[in-house]
Amino acid sequence: MKTMKILVINNYGQFCHLIHRTIRDLEMDTSIISNTSSVEDILSKEPDGLVLSGGPTMERVGNCAQYIREIDLPILGICLGHQVMAKTFSGEVGPGKYGGYAEVEVKVLEEDDILQGLAPKTSVWASHADEVKTLPEEFIWLARSEVCEIEAMKHKTKPLYGVQWHPEVAHTEKGQDLFLNFFKVCEEY
User: Fold this and answer.
1) 13: pLDDT strictly greater than 80
2) Is 168 designated active site?
3) What domains are there in the chain, each with its CATH number?
């Protein structure tokens, strides 16, 4: 796989720098970019893909919804990034029943591009303080768990992907595989 430029959009989550390090350790060119950057500024860096990091609240996602709507590149939303993606396409986001970070067993419903090799189940580290409650109409439901119905999704026609869990943390099994699958989407796009 060739080296690509993957920009990590900083949504002020505690694992943003870990996402950056994981991508760098997988031999991709990567930078952390403020979520208040303009679309033009992001495009001037000529990225092959974007990763929307997790973060504390929907009020601090800056221009992420604009990036999702206007930037024609593969985008992976992690935790809050996943939720912003759902909300951008009229999905519902709300508090989860189970709250804080914990190990969760995820059942893969559709082994698509980014979940290739993770089926039928995978153990992940996730926060469910907030979660996607209603899948947007334009999206395909990819994974669920006992604590959250919409653990992963993808857009039907655009290279937009969201996961509730954190593939960048060591506790998530096959987290690096998810990133490698995303890089493959970026390479083929």
Assistant:
1) yes
2) yes
3) 5-188 (3.40.50.880)
